[in-house]
Amino acid sequence: MTAHGRRTLLAAIGACGVVVAMSGCGGSTDVPPTREAPPSGTVITLDGAVYGRPIAVGDTVIAATENGSIYAVAGDTVRWRTHVADPMPGSQLPCGNIDPVGITGAPAYDASAHRVYVVAESAGAHKTLYGLDSDTGSVTLRVPVDPPFGDAPAYLQRPALTVRDGHVYAAFGGNYGDCGNYTGAIAAVDVSTSAVTWYRASTSGKGGVWAPGPAAEVDGLLFYSVGNGDAEPGSPYDDTDSVIALTPDLRRADFFAPTTWAQDNAADRDLGTMNPVLVNRHLVMAGKSGDGYVLDPAHLGGISSGASAFTGCKAFGPAAVDADVAYLPCTKGTTAVRVSDTGAATVLWHTTAPANGPPLVAAGRVWATDWHTGTLYALDPATGNVLAQYGTGALPHFATPVLANGVLVVGTLSGIEYFRLP
């Protein structure tokens, strides 16, 4: 394949309207893009955009689309496809930048039940949790999960689902533009009884729980970030601009918020953009303000005047962790932060590459996308230097690579794409 331009050789047309192709891409002159295609091909076109990070189940990749379909793909073979619901047209939503809206949040897998879970949006902006048999794709569970606060069209289910102890946890925020009447919410669905318990994230309104990664789990608690609420200077604290610790039955056990929460709300500089991540027994968190915090998960501290642990990282999405180092998805590029046993943070490097997507550590590299330009970067974990870069298909916001069956898989606006590890 040539390193300049993009050409596509049609290799096969799979089941369910799936196109499998091999492709090469061009890019910057500083580090020429390279591509080694796995034997099975590199591009698999599905029936819609894949916003949620695909997941690996054995040798199979599970990917869900904004057209309301779930695929199980092994190499270039589609093992099954299940269309659970026709999506909601974006034109019928009060705001947003996804059209149509079907399945946005990353799926989750329960190995004990051999079941895949997704939340799909359908006509009327209704949200439904589906459980599917991981071997066949047959639907074995349907539970409505429309948040009981606000107006249905104002909600978007973007965070990855979390499965634990017979429950699926699904978090909700607003659409891009933060419009309409909604309150951030988290649902806990008992998959044996279909009972749904709700947590309301804000006492004032807004306070979306929307960072695209999963909850952090520490000592039986679930940790989420909460975005800006409607309460501003002069108002009582409204539980927003925070990191929260929830019990499995969704009681808030603890929280952290900076003393600047009201000003953050007014200026849209909240903490809700990144998922809290556990590093060396501490939680690392950064948000739109660029300030980063290292928190004790056993005592988050409430509204705290403590100084930030590091600055200069506006982070969006989940981080990657390797031992005591967190690789953060900062808008200016991946940033490596070491956390000591005592919780002291040391910024090791900021990459100069525009690798702003949530990263992955694999094969001695840090992998992160630039979802603006459609590029996958391989970074040196010790320095942040670019070791290679690969052109991709057009990417959704916060595109996150996943390791599956020995290759990297990235969701694109038209399906999934494979990349061989070095």
Topology, please?
Blueprint: E1 7-13, E2 19-24, E3 43-45, E4 55-57, E5 60-64, E6 69-74, E7 77-83, E8 108-110, E9 115-122, E10 126-133, E11 139-144, E12 155-156, E13 162-164, E14 167-174, E15 185-190, E16 196-200, E17 216-218, E18 221-226, E19 242-246, E20 252-258, H1 261-267, E21 277-279, E22 282-286, E23 292-295, E24 302-304, E25 320-322, E26 325-328, E27 335-339, E28 345-350, E29 360-362, E30 365-370, E31 375-379, E32 386-391, E33 402-404, E34 407-411, E35 415-420
Parallel strand pairs: 20-24
Antiparallel strand pairs: 1-2, 2-3, 3-35, 4-5, 5-6, 6-7, 8-9, 9-10, 10-11, 12-14, 13-14, 14-15, 15-16, 17-18, 18-19, 19-20, 21-22, 22-23, 25-26, 26-27, 27-28, 29-30, 30-31, 31-32, 33-34, 34-35
